[in-house]
Amino acid sequence: MGSNLTASCWVHPELGVHANSLFWTLNGHQLPSSLYRVLSPTNLSVTLAGLNASRQTSGDNLVCHNHKGHILAGSCLYVGMPPEKPVNLTCWSRNTKDLTCSWAPGGKGETNISTLYKLKYKLRWYGTEKECEDYSHTQPYSCSITQDLHLFTPYEIWVEASNRLGRATSDVIILDILDVVTTDPPSGVTVSRLGQLEDQLSVRWEAPPALKDFLFKAKYQIRYRLEESQDWKVMNDVGNQTSCRLAGLRPGTVYFVQVRCNPVGIYGSRKAGIWSEWSHPTAASTPHKRLMSCDSKSSGDSNSTLRRELKQFLGWVKKHAYGCSSMSMKLYDQWRVDMQKSPKTRNQVGKHRQMPRRKPTQTHTSSKRWSCFHSSQTRKKLLGRKRHCSMKMSDSGEDF
User: Fold this and answer.
1) N or C: where does the chain have the smaller number of CB atoms within 10 Å of the terminal CB?
2) pLDDT in tens, 124-149
3) pTM: predicted TM-score of the whole model, two decimal places
4) Contact predicate 385/317, CB 8 Å
5) In Å, how far are 17, 43, 244, 388 from 11, measured between CA atoms?
Protein backbone atom coordinates (compact mmCIF):
# COMPACT_ATOMS: atom_id res chain seq x y z
CA MET A 1 0.00 0.00 0.00
CA GLY A 2 1.06 3.56 -0.71
CA SER A 3 3.25 2.55 -3.66
CA ASN A 4 2.83 3.22 -7.41
CA LEU A 5 1.60 0.77 -10.03
CA THR A 6 2.17 0.94 -13.81
CA ALA A 7 0.19 -1.26 -16.21
CA SER A 8 0.55 -1.53 -20.01
CA CYS A 9 -2.00 -2.40 -22.72
CA TRP A 10 -0.41 -3.75 -25.90
CA VAL A 11 -2.47 -4.47 -29.05
CA HIS A 12 -1.45 -6.48 -32.13
CA PRO A 13 -0.45 -4.31 -35.06
CA GLU A 14 -2.67 -6.31 -37.41
CA LEU A 15 -5.75 -4.98 -35.58
CA GLY A 16 -5.04 -1.50 -36.87
CA VAL A 17 -5.78 0.08 -33.46
CA HIS A 18 -3.64 3.04 -32.37
CA ALA A 19 -2.69 3.49 -28.71
CA ASN A 20 -4.14 7.01 -28.70
CA SER A 21 -7.65 5.55 -29.08
CA LEU A 22 -7.39 3.33 -26.00
CA PHE A 23 -8.51 4.19 -22.45
CA TRP A 24 -8.42 2.64 -18.97
CA THR A 25 -11.10 2.00 -16.28
CA LEU A 26 -10.76 1.07 -12.61
CA ASN A 27 -13.77 -0.73 -11.13
CA GLY A 28 -15.91 0.59 -14.04
CA HIS A 29 -14.80 4.23 -13.77
CA GLN A 30 -12.73 5.73 -16.61
CA LEU A 31 -9.33 7.01 -15.52
CA PRO A 32 -8.19 10.48 -16.65
CA SER A 33 -5.88 10.67 -19.69
CA SER A 34 -3.31 12.53 -17.59
CA LEU A 35 -2.40 9.16 -16.10
CA TYR A 36 -1.70 7.63 -19.54
CA ARG A 37 1.55 7.38 -21.44
CA VAL A 38 1.88 6.25 -25.06
CA LEU A 39 4.89 3.98 -25.17
CA SER A 40 4.43 3.06 -28.85
CA PRO A 41 1.70 3.23 -31.50
CA THR A 42 0.36 -0.06 -30.12
CA ASN A 43 1.17 0.27 -26.38
CA LEU A 44 -0.59 2.48 -23.80
CA SER A 45 0.42 2.49 -20.12
CA VAL A 46 -1.31 3.91 -17.04
CA THR A 47 0.29 4.80 -13.68
CA LEU A 48 -1.62 4.67 -10.38
CA ALA A 49 0.15 6.54 -7.57
CA GLY A 50 -0.17 6.00 -3.80
CA LEU A 51 -2.46 2.99 -3.96
CA ASN A 52 -4.83 2.50 -1.03
CA ALA A 53 -6.20 -0.79 0.23
CA SER A 54 -8.52 -2.70 -2.06
CA ARG A 55 -12.05 -1.39 -1.91
CA GLN A 56 -13.54 -4.87 -2.17
CA THR A 57 -12.41 -8.30 -1.06
CA SER A 58 -12.52 -9.61 -4.62
CA GLY A 59 -9.87 -7.08 -5.66
CA ASP A 60 -9.91 -4.01 -7.93
CA ASN A 61 -10.54 -4.48 -11.66
CA LEU A 62 -8.17 -2.52 -13.94
CA VAL A 63 -9.34 -2.84 -17.60
CA CYS A 64 -8.06 -1.60 -20.98
CA HIS A 65 -10.71 -0.67 -23.63
CA ASN A 66 -10.66 0.27 -27.33
CA HIS A 67 -12.35 3.39 -28.64
CA LYS A 68 -15.70 1.55 -28.84
CA GLY A 69 -15.49 0.46 -25.20
CA HIS A 70 -14.74 -3.18 -25.93
CA ILE A 71 -12.50 -4.91 -23.41
CA LEU A 72 -9.06 -5.65 -24.74
CA ALA A 73 -7.31 -6.75 -21.53
CA GLY A 74 -7.58 -6.46 -17.76
CA SER A 75 -6.18 -7.41 -14.40
CA CYS A 76 -7.47 -7.87 -10.84
CA LEU A 77 -5.49 -5.85 -8.34
CA TYR A 78 -5.12 -6.81 -4.69
CA VAL A 79 -3.76 -3.96 -2.62
CA GLY A 80 -2.86 -4.86 0.95
CA MET A 81 -0.24 -6.51 3.12
CA PRO A 82 1.01 -10.08 3.43
CA PRO A 83 0.11 -11.65 6.79
CA GLU A 84 2.47 -11.59 9.75
CA LYS A 85 3.09 -14.46 12.14
CA PRO A 86 -0.04 -15.16 14.28
CA VAL A 87 0.52 -14.60 18.00
CA ASN A 88 -0.99 -15.40 21.42
CA LEU A 89 -1.90 -18.98 20.57
CA THR A 90 -3.72 -20.36 23.63
CA CYS A 91 -5.59 -23.64 24.12
CA TRP A 92 -7.88 -25.11 26.78
CA SER A 93 -10.01 -28.22 27.26
CA ARG A 94 -13.48 -28.12 28.82
CA ASN A 95 -13.86 -31.19 31.01
CA THR A 96 -11.33 -33.08 28.76
CA LYS A 97 -14.07 -33.44 26.12
CA ASP A 98 -12.58 -31.08 23.53
CA LEU A 99 -9.62 -28.82 22.82
CA THR A 100 -10.27 -25.21 21.83
CA CYS A 101 -7.55 -22.83 20.66
CA SER A 102 -7.59 -19.10 19.98
CA TRP A 103 -5.02 -16.72 18.51
CA ALA A 104 -4.53 -13.17 17.26
CA PRO A 105 -3.25 -11.84 13.92
CA GLY A 106 0.34 -10.67 13.97
CA GLY A 107 1.48 -7.08 13.60
CA LYS A 108 -1.31 -4.52 13.32
CA GLY A 109 -3.67 -7.31 12.32
CA GLU A 110 -5.07 -5.57 9.24
CA THR A 111 -3.83 -6.95 5.92
CA ASN A 112 -6.68 -5.17 4.05
CA ILE A 113 -7.28 -8.22 1.92
CA SER A 114 -8.87 -11.54 2.72
CA THR A 115 -6.57 -13.66 4.90
CA LEU A 116 -7.16 -17.32 5.69
CA TYR A 117 -6.16 -18.86 9.04
CA LYS A 118 -5.77 -22.59 9.62
CA LEU A 119 -5.24 -24.30 12.99
CA LYS A 120 -3.12 -27.42 12.60
CA TYR A 121 -2.01 -30.08 15.09
CA LYS A 122 -0.46 -33.49 15.48
CA LEU A 123 0.66 -35.86 18.21
CA ARG A 124 4.21 -34.96 19.13
CA TRP A 125 5.95 -38.29 18.61
CA TYR A 126 3.75 -39.95 16.06
CA GLY A 127 0.69 -39.34 13.94
CA THR A 128 -0.03 -37.24 10.90
CA GLU A 129 -0.68 -33.53 10.58
CA LYS A 130 -4.36 -32.59 10.83
CA GLU A 131 -6.39 -29.42 10.45
CA CYS A 132 -9.07 -28.26 12.88
CA GLU A 133 -12.49 -28.16 11.22
CA ASP A 134 -14.86 -26.57 13.75
CA TYR A 135 -14.05 -22.86 13.38
CA SER A 136 -16.05 -20.46 15.50
CA HIS A 137 -18.57 -18.17 13.80
CA THR A 138 -18.79 -15.80 16.77
CA GLN A 139 -15.09 -15.51 17.61
CA PRO A 140 -13.09 -14.91 14.41
CA TYR A 141 -9.81 -16.50 15.48
CA SER A 142 -10.65 -19.76 17.27
CA CYS A 143 -11.31 -23.40 16.50
CA SER A 144 -12.33 -26.50 18.50
CA ILE A 145 -11.04 -30.05 18.10
CA THR A 146 -13.83 -32.38 19.21
CA GLN A 147 -12.82 -35.83 17.95
CA ASP A 148 -10.04 -38.37 18.45
CA LEU A 149 -8.42 -36.64 21.41
CA HIS A 150 -5.70 -38.46 23.34
CA LEU A 151 -4.98 -37.97 27.04
CA PHE A 152 -1.49 -38.37 28.57
CA THR A 153 0.05 -37.55 25.17
CA PRO A 154 1.48 -34.15 24.18
CA TYR A 155 0.28 -32.32 21.08
CA GLU A 156 2.07 -29.93 18.75
CA ILE A 157 -0.23 -27.08 17.66
CA TRP A 158 0.31 -24.08 15.36
CA VAL A 159 -1.55 -21.62 13.10
CA GLU A 160 -0.93 -20.83 9.42
CA ALA A 161 -2.03 -17.52 7.85
CA SER A 162 -2.12 -16.90 4.10
CA ASN A 163 -3.47 -14.44 1.51
CA ARG A 164 -2.67 -13.54 -2.11
CA LEU A 165 0.41 -11.63 -1.04
CA GLY A 166 2.08 -14.24 1.16
CA ARG A 167 1.88 -16.60 4.14
CA ALA A 168 3.15 -16.89 7.74
CA THR A 169 3.22 -19.52 10.49
CA SER A 170 2.93 -19.05 14.26
CA ASP A 171 5.26 -20.54 16.84
CA VAL A 172 4.50 -24.17 17.70
CA ILE A 173 3.17 -24.83 21.20
CA ILE A 174 3.40 -28.20 22.94
CA LEU A 175 0.79 -29.21 25.51
CA ASP A 176 -0.94 -32.10 27.23
CA ILE A 177 -4.73 -31.83 27.41
CA LEU A 178 -4.68 -32.60 31.15
CA ASP A 179 -2.55 -29.49 31.72
CA VAL A 180 -5.13 -27.14 30.19
CA VAL A 181 -8.39 -28.49 31.61
CA THR A 182 -11.06 -26.05 32.68
CA THR A 183 -14.58 -26.84 33.79
CA ASP A 184 -18.09 -25.51 34.15
CA PRO A 185 -18.82 -22.98 36.89
CA PRO A 186 -19.84 -24.43 40.29
CA SER A 187 -23.54 -25.28 40.49
CA GLY A 188 -26.12 -24.84 43.21
CA VAL A 189 -24.69 -21.57 44.54
CA THR A 190 -26.74 -20.32 47.52
CA VAL A 191 -26.23 -17.26 49.69
CA SER A 192 -28.00 -17.00 53.06
CA ARG A 193 -27.93 -15.05 56.30
CA LEU A 194 -26.14 -16.23 59.42
CA GLY A 195 -28.94 -15.73 61.92
CA GLN A 196 -29.13 -12.07 62.88
CA LEU A 197 -25.44 -11.30 62.24
CA GLU A 198 -25.63 -7.96 60.51
CA ASP A 199 -22.29 -8.04 58.67
CA GLN A 200 -22.03 -11.65 57.45
CA LEU A 201 -23.43 -13.98 54.78
CA SER A 202 -22.94 -17.71 54.19
CA VAL A 203 -22.09 -18.96 50.66
CA ARG A 204 -22.45 -22.61 49.63
CA TRP A 205 -22.00 -24.37 46.28
CA GLU A 206 -21.48 -27.76 44.63
CA ALA A 207 -18.44 -29.02 42.73
CA PRO A 208 -18.78 -29.11 38.91
CA PRO A 209 -20.65 -32.35 38.11
CA ALA A 210 -18.76 -32.96 34.85
CA LEU A 211 -15.56 -33.74 36.78
CA LYS A 212 -17.04 -35.86 39.56
CA ASP A 213 -15.32 -39.01 38.23
CA PHE A 214 -11.90 -37.40 37.85
CA LEU A 215 -9.12 -37.38 40.41
CA PHE A 216 -8.27 -33.76 41.13
CA LYS A 217 -8.18 -31.17 43.89
CA ALA A 218 -10.30 -28.17 43.00
CA LYS A 219 -9.79 -24.69 44.35
CA TYR A 220 -12.37 -21.94 44.32
CA GLN A 221 -12.64 -18.18 44.20
CA ILE A 222 -15.51 -15.98 45.35
CA ARG A 223 -16.27 -12.46 44.32
CA TYR A 224 -19.03 -10.18 45.60
CA ARG A 225 -20.25 -6.62 45.16
CA LEU A 226 -22.87 -4.21 46.40
CA GLU A 227 -26.08 -4.05 44.39
CA GLU A 228 -25.43 -0.45 43.35
CA SER A 229 -21.73 -0.99 42.55
CA GLN A 230 -19.80 -2.60 39.70
CA ASP A 231 -16.61 -3.07 41.73
CA TRP A 232 -16.05 -6.70 42.73
CA LYS A 233 -14.12 -7.85 45.78
CA VAL A 234 -12.36 -11.20 45.27
CA MET A 235 -11.59 -13.85 47.92
CA ASN A 236 -8.61 -15.91 46.74
CA ASP A 237 -7.99 -18.09 49.79
CA VAL A 238 -11.14 -20.21 49.72
CA GLY A 239 -9.23 -23.45 49.05
CA ASN A 240 -11.09 -26.62 48.07
CA GLN A 241 -14.01 -26.30 50.48
CA THR A 242 -17.53 -25.79 49.11
CA SER A 243 -18.68 -23.19 51.62
CA CYS A 244 -17.43 -19.87 52.87
CA ARG A 245 -18.45 -17.03 55.16
CA LEU A 246 -18.34 -13.42 54.00
CA ALA A 247 -17.63 -11.01 56.87
CA GLY A 248 -17.29 -7.28 57.28
CA LEU A 249 -20.36 -6.56 55.15
CA ARG A 250 -22.67 -3.58 55.35
CA PRO A 251 -25.89 -4.19 57.36
CA GLY A 252 -29.20 -4.03 55.50
CA THR A 253 -27.54 -4.25 52.07
CA VAL A 254 -28.08 -6.44 48.98
CA TYR A 255 -24.97 -8.26 47.71
CA PHE A 256 -24.35 -10.19 44.48
CA VAL A 257 -22.07 -13.24 44.79
CA GLN A 258 -20.32 -15.43 42.17
CA VAL A 259 -18.07 -18.50 42.43
CA ARG A 260 -15.63 -20.11 39.99
CA CYS A 261 -13.54 -23.29 39.99
CA ASN A 262 -10.01 -24.32 39.02
CA PRO A 263 -9.46 -28.10 38.64
CA VAL A 264 -5.90 -28.18 39.94
CA GLY A 265 -3.78 -31.31 39.56
CA ILE A 266 -6.23 -33.37 37.52
CA TYR A 267 -4.77 -36.88 37.20
CA GLY A 268 -1.54 -35.64 38.79
CA SER A 269 -0.91 -32.69 36.46
CA ARG A 270 1.55 -30.17 37.89
CA LYS A 271 0.21 -27.21 35.94
CA ALA A 272 -1.64 -24.35 37.62
CA GLY A 273 -4.95 -25.12 35.94
CA ILE A 274 -7.39 -22.77 34.19
CA TRP A 275 -10.21 -20.94 35.96
CA SER A 276 -13.78 -21.60 34.86
CA GLU A 277 -16.25 -18.88 34.03
CA TRP A 278 -18.00 -17.23 36.98
CA SER A 279 -21.32 -18.68 38.10
CA HIS A 280 -24.50 -16.70 37.58
CA PRO A 281 -24.84 -13.92 40.18
CA THR A 282 -26.78 -14.90 43.32
CA ALA A 283 -28.28 -12.11 45.44
CA ALA A 284 -28.89 -11.93 49.20
CA SER A 285 -29.21 -9.17 51.77
CA THR A 286 -27.68 -8.74 55.22
CA PRO A 287 -30.02 -8.10 58.20
CA HIS A 288 -30.75 -4.51 59.13
CA LYS A 289 -28.90 -3.12 62.12
CA ARG A 290 -30.97 -3.43 65.31
CA LEU A 291 -31.71 -0.25 67.22
CA MET A 292 -30.61 -0.21 70.86
CA SER A 293 -33.43 2.11 71.98
CA CYS A 294 -37.16 1.57 71.62
CA ASP A 295 -37.81 5.31 71.42
CA SER A 296 -35.10 6.92 69.29
CA LYS A 297 -36.64 10.38 69.43
CA SER A 298 -36.57 10.65 73.19
CA SER A 299 -33.36 8.68 73.78
CA GLY A 300 -31.24 11.82 74.16
CA ASP A 301 -33.58 13.43 76.69
CA SER A 302 -34.07 10.12 78.49
CA ASN A 303 -30.33 9.55 78.91
CA SER A 304 -29.88 13.08 80.26
CA THR A 305 -32.72 12.61 82.76
CA LEU A 306 -31.49 9.18 83.82
CA ARG A 307 -28.02 10.53 84.42
CA ARG A 308 -29.43 13.33 86.59
CA GLU A 309 -31.53 10.91 88.63
CA LEU A 310 -28.63 8.52 89.06
CA LYS A 311 -26.42 11.36 90.24
CA GLN A 312 -29.01 12.40 92.83
CA PHE A 313 -29.51 8.82 93.99
CA LEU A 314 -25.80 8.20 94.49
CA GLY A 315 -25.50 11.50 96.34
CA TRP A 316 -28.36 10.43 98.59
CA VAL A 317 -26.64 7.08 99.24
CA LYS A 318 -23.40 8.84 100.12
CA LYS A 319 -25.20 11.28 102.42
CA HIS A 320 -26.89 8.50 104.34
CA ALA A 321 -23.61 6.51 104.51
CA TYR A 322 -24.95 3.40 102.86
CA GLY A 323 -22.29 0.98 101.65
CA CYS A 324 -22.12 -0.67 98.26
CA SER A 325 -23.06 -3.99 99.79
CA SER A 326 -26.44 -2.61 100.82
CA MET A 327 -27.34 -1.24 97.41
CA SER A 328 -30.54 -2.82 96.15
CA MET A 329 -33.71 -2.10 94.28
CA LYS A 330 -35.42 -1.67 97.65
CA LEU A 331 -32.96 1.10 98.53
CA TYR A 332 -33.62 2.75 95.19
CA ASP A 333 -37.38 2.64 95.79
CA GLN A 334 -36.88 4.19 99.22
CA TRP A 335 -34.97 7.05 97.60
CA ARG A 336 -37.79 7.57 95.15
CA VAL A 337 -40.25 7.95 98.03
CA ASP A 338 -37.95 10.36 99.89
CA MET A 339 -37.47 12.37 96.74
CA GLN A 340 -41.20 12.83 96.36
CA LYS A 341 -41.53 13.94 100.00
CA SER A 342 -38.87 16.64 99.54
CA PRO A 343 -40.25 19.61 97.56
CA LYS A 344 -36.75 20.83 96.73
CA THR A 345 -35.62 17.52 95.29
CA ARG A 346 -38.90 16.95 93.52
CA ASN A 347 -38.65 20.35 91.85
CA GLN A 348 -35.07 19.69 90.70
CA VAL A 349 -36.14 16.56 88.88
CA GLY A 350 -39.67 17.52 88.06
CA LYS A 351 -38.82 20.84 86.44
CA HIS A 352 -37.25 18.95 83.57
CA ARG A 353 -40.35 16.84 83.07
CA GLN A 354 -42.90 19.64 83.50
CA MET A 355 -45.28 17.39 85.43
CA PRO A 356 -48.43 18.93 87.01
CA ARG A 357 -48.54 19.18 90.79
CA ARG A 358 -50.54 16.51 92.58
CA LYS A 359 -52.33 16.49 95.84
CA PRO A 360 -50.20 15.25 98.75
CA THR A 361 -52.30 12.13 99.08
CA GLN A 362 -51.51 11.20 95.48
CA THR A 363 -47.80 11.90 95.60
CA HIS A 364 -46.59 8.35 95.96
CA THR A 365 -49.02 6.88 93.45
CA SER A 366 -48.36 9.49 90.80
CA SER A 367 -44.64 9.04 91.35
CA LYS A 368 -44.82 5.43 90.31
CA ARG A 369 -46.90 6.22 87.26
CA TRP A 370 -44.74 9.21 86.31
CA SER A 371 -41.37 7.45 86.54
CA CYS A 372 -42.30 4.00 85.22
CA PHE A 373 -40.12 4.34 82.14
CA HIS A 374 -37.09 6.09 83.58
CA SER A 375 -37.05 4.14 86.84
CA SER A 376 -36.72 0.80 85.09
CA GLN A 377 -33.69 2.04 83.18
CA THR A 378 -32.17 3.62 86.27
CA ARG A 379 -32.56 0.23 88.04
CA LYS A 380 -30.43 -1.34 85.32
CA LYS A 381 -27.74 1.29 85.77
CA LEU A 382 -27.91 0.77 89.52
CA LEU A 383 -27.05 -2.90 89.13
CA GLY A 384 -24.02 -1.95 87.09
CA ARG A 385 -23.01 0.51 89.84
CA LYS A 386 -23.23 -2.14 92.50
CA ARG A 387 -20.71 -4.35 90.73
CA HIS A 388 -18.05 -1.65 90.64
CA CYS A 389 -18.89 0.09 93.95
CA SER A 390 -17.84 3.50 92.70
CA MET A 391 -19.21 6.92 93.48
CA LYS A 392 -18.26 8.26 90.03
CA MET A 393 -20.38 8.59 86.94
CA SER A 394 -19.07 6.17 84.29
CA ASP A 395 -19.03 8.65 81.44
CA SER A 396 -17.88 11.85 83.15
CA GLY A 397 -16.01 10.75 86.29
CA GLU A 398 -17.75 13.28 88.52
CA ASP A 399 -17.66 12.74 92.30
CA PHE A 400 -20.76 12.92 94.44
Assistant:
1) N
2) 888 789 999 889 877 789 999 988 88
3) 0.56
4) no
5) 7, 7, 85, 121
